[in-house]
Amino acid sequence: MKNNRLLKPSLHLVCAGCTALGLLGSLSLFASEMKNTPLHISQGQLNEMIDEGAQAQAFETAFDVGDRLFEHRFSARDGVGANIGNGQRFSLVPRADLDAENQWASHIPRRVTGPNAQSCNVCHSTPFGDGAGRAVMNNIRDPKHTGQVSDFINRQTPHIFGIGALQRLAEEMSAELDIVRVTAIAQAQSSGQTVRLPLVAKGVDFGLLTAHSDGSLDASEVAGIDPDLLVKPVEWKGITTNIRAFVRDASHNELGMQPVEITGKGVDGDGDGVVDELSVGDITAMVIYQAAQPRPTTREELSKLGLIDPLSTREIRRITRGEQVFVDTGCESCHRAQLTLNDPVFSEPSRHPDYRDKTFPAGQDPLAEGIDPQNSIRFNLTEDLPDNIIEHKNGTLTRLGNFEKTANGGAIVRLFGDLKRHDMGAGLAESVDEAGTGESTFLTKELWGVGSTAPYLHDGRATTLAEAIDFHGGDSAASRGQFNALAEADKRALIAFLKNQVLYKTREVVGR
Ligand code: HEC
Ligand code: HEC
User: Fold this and answer.
1) The pTM of the whole model exceeds 0.85
2) Is 207 helix (H, G, I), strand (E, B) or coil?
3) 332 CA distance to ligand 1 centroid (A)?
4) If 277 and its partner were Cys, which of 79, 116, 233, 239 is the partner (CB 3.0–4.6 Å)?
5) Which residues line ligand 1 at a C-beta cut-off of 6 Å?
6) Euclidean distance between CA atoms 389 and 13, whole angstroms
7) Each residue of 92-118: pLDDT tens digit?
8) Which residues lie below 8 Å from residue 149, measured CB to CB, with a gap of 6+?
């Protein structure tokens, strides 16, 4: 269906190797191409394409619309921002004090931050669109709605590259854990004895699950995930299962662009005089756009492809040494170098029932709104990712955005993470336990792209990679100790290895 691209004939990439000049050039090119892409789409329009057998067209259209939505600077007419009180539309500071009707504290659903910005890309912008954020783009939230500054939490903007693969890994890991659950119950019931089984998924240890002979479960020894045994890859605290759930909340909280699936149709939940600000189809498009972001890459890989200057032998040796030091100092026990996906097809809605909505937050039946797992938008993370297609002088193409294939059709995901939560110690604790998972408990941050995304840690307190490591406490204190005890050369090697992990987006691309 390649030549069936309705909306944008060829290039759709945002930013080049990131000289200022390249950036400007690519943006003007980008703007002219975006003209033909509609800003909104209905789920019905996407479903029509699927019904006609044009899966690829549905994917590409959703990607393109999602791309536009992600970077569009919404206006008051679109419904951006909210009536937060005092005649204002945006606020970087949570305003639970503004609590008269339709003011900040009375929005439906309840607001925890913002509205902060006119577009997603304002924050996800470093070193280019879909990237991370600088300190000024931190998000200040008031989860308890107290209006007390001491109850606010401060979160740094992460990049969203590769997030589709993270959701797929979580889906497969949860499916594995569910088999342990079913097995434990079956064994306990048939033997009449209590059964205690290790919860392991893709080699990551999530503690122990106990089943009693009456079929009841004891999850008190489960580690790093909730008792529901679902791996949650989204947010610094690893508390959200899927991209859709996060994106619609971000639209509401960050932008004040309210999706109908969280307000209900015709409902002006934020008092700005505009209803139905984002359709179900719009949110699907944003999910597809995010899930199909390219995988992060390495400077080594880029230099081999001639996209950056060649690395010196000394640099390569240092990176290789750093990789070994990373393992030797225990970093890899949490920051797993890679996890493997058995099935690299991403599907929206998800094929895993716990990674799609049973009902939308506003109460609608997703099926009645056209969100049908039998008729989903699908794409292959090892074949279809639209970004970072490099055309070589001899005309051959490298699809650098795609994940690497395994011999049996799976995908290698070099995330440097384990999708598990860890206690990082009192030093990193937040003032509020936002989700009941512990003030100092965070998801192992994936380190892919980390060379491009300073500042670091959930609140951006670390300005360098060495500082980020030095803030590791709790379950990671021993590893930090090992790092601090290293010889200077080994410390430098480890940092060089981390700096090798970068984000890349290029415009040197021709179609697909
Ligand atoms: C004010 C800055 C800001 C804006 C605007 C913003 N984000 Fe974010 N984004 C963040 C922060 C901060 C986080 C981390 C939140 C957390 O984990 O607590 C985040 C996290 C995310 C994540 C999850 C990444 C992960 O690995 O867990 C996604 C996806 C995302 N944003 C998408 C969007 C979309 C889509 C929009 C526009 C509708 C948007 N963001 C607008 C700051 C922003
Ligand atoms: C017990 C698990 C664990 C171990 C061991 C561990 N980390 Fe981490 N790491 C985490 C968690 C969890 C976070 C996120 C903490 C936060 O945001 O406050 C993190 C964050 C980071 C970050 C910041 C990433 C970013 O994008 O902000 C870096 C860099 C990092 N770790 C490197 C290392 C290195 C190097 C080692 C070995 C010396 C190591 N870590 C050992 C769990 C671990």
Assistant:
1) yes
2) strand
3) 26
4) 79
5) 70, 116-117, 120, 122-124, 133, 137, 139, 155-158, 160, 163, 234-236, 243, 246-247, 250-251, 254-255, 286, 290
6) 9
7) 999 999 999 889 999 999 999 999 999
8) none
